[in-house]
Each structure stands twice: as structure tokens, then as C-alpha cells.
Amino acid sequence: MKRKMLLVDDDILMREFITDYFHKENWEVHEAENGAIALQIFAQTPVDLVILDIMMPELDGWSTCREIRLKSNVPIIIITARTEDNDQLLGFELGADEYVTKPLSPRVLVARAAALIKRTESAPHRQGNMFVQGNLSVNKLSHTVSVAGSMVNLSPKEYDLLLFLINHYGRVLPREYILDSVWGYDYLGDLRTVDTHIKKLRAKLGEEGRYIGTVIRSGYKFDVEP
Fold first, then answer.
1. Which helix (H) or strand (E) holds 52?
2. Ranges 117-126, 145-154, 216-225: which has the least confidence
């Protein structure tokens, strides 16, 4: 069965360039020249992946990413010529899963798309208020965490941090975003607070702490292959 992808870029040559490589890998590609058209297509056509440029007329990539995330957890790869760290952080905060800068290699883009789809499909087992991955189990009702059947004693903030990471499974979460979301916007501490709690959380989870990955210059993510 063909994978379906929505490619959003106002550069027609770039769209043709990328589409050609995805066609060779048996992908079905739907194209849009701006965010407004992309949202129309997205509402009508189920897709497995969105590849999204940032600088576009009518509706830019930031706004398009935000609107898609309100409706769906479909994997999103942002492609852009902008390389500033703040732009990448914003993309991740809006829910993008990958960030690829131009000029890009279409072969690498196809490979990263395939890897992203694989991670999405291998997402851990969820049943009601239970989360299970490997030997790690989290009961969201009782706020309890166990590893290989043994209870793990987490502080309330450590539990909140773990649950936040799990609820954003597979996504890169900037330290600033974690700090604001878990500790609150009025918290007076600095980013080292996040690093310290991550270190303690990994230690308490033991071998299962491997699921909490560090993304250099970006932040952290919870994933089967961090």
C-alpha cells in the first residue's frame, strides 16, 4: 500500500524535485503551494506525512503547522532555508517532528521520512490510562510508575516531567518549552532545572531511562530510539 504525503512549498521546482524522489519510493504525493491550500487538502485527504516549507504566501508554515497540530498527530517535517536556532525551537514547539534545512538532499529527506514513519508506527502500547513501553509502565490514574514490576519512587515534579515527555512521544521538546509547560511561566529557575530533573529521572528509571534522549542544541525527547 502506498504511503501518502502532503508536500507544501511555494517553489514549484523544489516540489517537483522532492516529489520525483518520493515517487521512486512508491509514495503518493499531494502538492500545495501555500498553507491555505494545504489545509484544504489535509481536511479532505488522509495522509501519513506532511513536509512543510516555512516562508510561503497567504499562510506561512508556522501557522499551517499550528493548525494541523490542532487536528492531528500526523508526522510533520519542516524544510526551510532559515537556520537560526530560534526558528528550529519554534518549529518544535508548534509540534514539528523533524527540521531539515535547505539546500537539502532528497535522498536524505526520503530516508528521514521513512525513519519518522517507522518511529510513529512503533509507538508504545497505550490502553486507557496505562502507558507501557518495554519494562516501563505508567498508570495515569494512580500516578504510579513501575519498571519490570517494581515501583519507582518519583517526586511529583519528576512524574509530571515523565508524563509530559510521554504525552509528546517522539517529538523534540526544547528546554524552554519543557520548563514553561512543566514548571509554569512564572517559575524563576533556569534551564539547568530541566537538565537536573532529566538526569535524576533517567537514574531512577534505570535501563528504561534510555527512552529519554538528548537532542543536541535542541532539548529532549521520549522515543523508542532516542
1. strand 49-53
2. 117-126
In the DSSP assignment, the letter for residue 1 is -
Query: CB under 8 Å to 122, separation ≥6 — which residues?
Result: 224
CATH architecture for segment(s) 125-222: Orthogonal Bundle (1.10)
The domain segmentation of the chain, as residue ranges, is 3-121, 125-222
Q: What is the Cα–Cα distance from 37 to 8, expressed in whole angstroms?
A: 9
Kindly report the length of the chain.
226
* Range 3-121: architecture per CATH: 3-Layer(aba) Sandwich (3.40)
Q: Which residues contact 118 (CB under 8 A, 6 or more apart)?
A: none
Between 128 and 16, the more confident residue is 16
Instruction: Provide mean pLDDT across the span 83-109.
Output: 75
pLDDT of residue 19: 94
Give the residue with greater pLDDT, 129 vs 63: 63
